[in-house]
Design a protein that fits this description.
By secondary structure, this protein is mostly beta strands. The chain is 13% helix and 36% strand. The chain has six helices and 23 strands. The longest helix has 15 residues.
């Protein structure tokens, strides 16, 4: 479930409500567009009942929020699931281990220098939370099974702070006004905290094309903006806008929607995969490699948009195996470009699970995944046309099919 965040417009100061996945702020009052940029994770705070004169006494306890897909490759096969959890990020007695549904039920505020108070240190690493989430249910390697590979893809990691108030030598939950700790009995708790760090501040990046100065196009949750004036595409990262190499496979009137894929060209020497023909042979596909496939560099085609994990794997596998039918050309902005919501860094993490999902003989692939390293990696973005088939979108060249409701649901992951 997505969370709602209240953010002030940097131009006119009007309050704007965003979703957790929103990276583009469009003010409905003054019309300005700005991209939200941070050097670390996004940080939010739950609303409290403390009056302004007392706000300097507030302490904020961090909670790590993780939402995304976890993929596991083990002796038993492949499993995947969606995980949505918010876990305590600091060791402090009597604090609730999780925020429960409060993060979804309340409208959060973005952490700023004006929030006031002090902040308890994050003493539990995010990696520990992710490993704990991966061990829930079928994600655990039960029965002593060997785990060959684990990947977190399409994840959103952020920090949500629970406000605490020290009063009459007791520590209260400032959201519910419930006493948590009697400080007369707990005298050695680390309650000093630290002040607001300027690195936590969110910066606003104007959505202007660095090449021609034109307006960049994109929706609220997109990570890639396009310029219709000079036909360029720009990926949004921690350091600003970075120009992307991109292509498009032209469609006709029956192809009203373009979905983006990260094309990751690479070698995997540990598995003797140098070409597309090597991939076909290694994964034991029921097809005889054509002579030209031995000269075709191996590329993995990873959806650049979020989907439910099983469907994500199926689409990545179908397009990767059917890539020989694709001949994209230089990118030019076309109508109906679907937003890119999966960053290139996470697409790279999906290479191994796509390789595993493509294997018809798991014994040829699974045991070698821990040693597999990607070499000479080259990445680009390619938009492929999908035809409207009533309830589905279908990619004609590769046969990949995505249910319309599933694609719509992916925007909430």
């Amino acid at each position: 479930m997505d969370i709602r965040v209240e953010q002030s417009c940097p131009q006119c100061g009007a309050p704007v409500t965003l979703s957790e996945t929103s990276r583009l702020l469009t003010c409905p009052y003054c019309g300005t567009k700005n991209f939200l940029q941070t050097s670390s994770v996004f940080r939010y705070v739950l609303p409290d009942k403390v009056e302004p004169p007392e706000r300097g006494r507030l302490l904020y306890a961090p909670y790590i929020r993780f939402r995304g897909n976890i993929f596991l490759v083990s002796e038993a096969g492949m499993t995947c699931r969606v995980v949505d959890t918010t876990q305590q990020g600091t060791i402090l007695p009597a604090l609730p281990p999780s925020l429960g549904v409060r993060a979804q039920a309340m409208k959060l505020a973005r952490l700023t220098a004006e929030t006031g108070g002090r902040f308890l240190r994050l003493s539990i690493k995010t990696k520990v939370i992710l490993e704990k989430a991966a061990q829930i249910g079928e994600q655990s390697g039960r029965g002593g099974q060997v785990i060959f590979h684990r990947a977190y893809i399409g994840d959103t990691v952020s920090l949500i702070y629970l406000p605490l108030l020290r009063d009459n030598n007791c520590l209260f939950d400032a959201v519910t006004d419930t006493m948590l700790i009697d400080l007369d009995r707990e005298t050695s708790l680390p309650l000093q905290g630290k002040p607001f760090n300027p690195r936590w501040q969110v910066n606003f990046l104007p959505t202007l094309c660095p090449r021609c100065g034109g307006d960049l196009d994109g929706e609220g949750d997109c990570l890639v903006l396009t310029c219709g004036n000079c036909d360029t595409a720009w990926e949004i990262g921690n350091d600003g806008l970075r120009r992307l190499q991109w292509q498009i496979l032209p469609g006709d009137g029956d192809h009203p929607l373009y979905l983006a894929f990260w094309k990751i060209s690479t070698r995997i020497p540990a598995m003797e995969i140098e070409s597309f023909a090597d991939f076909i042979n290694k994964t034991n596909q029921p097809v005889v490699p054509r002579p030209q496939w031995h000269e075709r560099p191996m590329s993995f085609w990873i959806p650049a948009f979020k989907l439910r994990p099983k469907i994500f794997l199926r689409v990545a596998r179908q397009v990767t195996i059917g890539q020989w039918r694709l001949d994209p050309e230089k990118g030019h902005v076309a109508p109906n470009l679907y937003p890119v919501t999966l960053p290139a860094s996470e697409a790279r993490q999906a290479v191994k699970v796509t390789l595993a999902a493509s294997a018809t003989s798991p014994g040829n692939i699974f045991p070698f995944l821990p040693q597999a390293r990607l070499r000479d990696v080259k990445m680009s973005l390619v938009y492929l046309p999908f035809a409207d088939k009533q309830h589905d979108w279908m990619q004609p060249e590769t046969g990949a099919v995505i249910d319309k409701n599933v694609l719509r649901f992916g925007r909430t992951l």
